[in-house]
Amino acid sequence: MNKKEIHDLEPNLKPFYHGGVFYDYARHARNPKKILIKLFQNFINKGGKFLKLNIQDLNFDEEKPVLRSETQRFVFDKLVIACGAFSKKLTDKLHENIPLDTERGYHVHFKDFDHLISRPVVYSNRGFGMSPMDQGLRVVGTVEFGGLENALSKSRIKNLILNAKDMLDGLPEHKDEWLGFRPTLPDFLPIIGPSKNYKNVFYSFGHHHLGWTLGAISGKIVSGMIANENTNMDLKPYSSIRFA
Ligand SMILES: Cc1cc2nc3c(=O)[nH]c(=O)nc-3n(C[C@H](O)[C@H](O)[C@H](O)COP(=O)(O)OP(=O)(O)OC[C@H]3O[C@@H](n4cnc5c(N)ncnc54)[C@H](O)[C@@H]3O)c2cc1C
Question: Which residue in 155, 159, 180 sits closest to 104, CA to CA?
Answer without folding.
Answer: 180
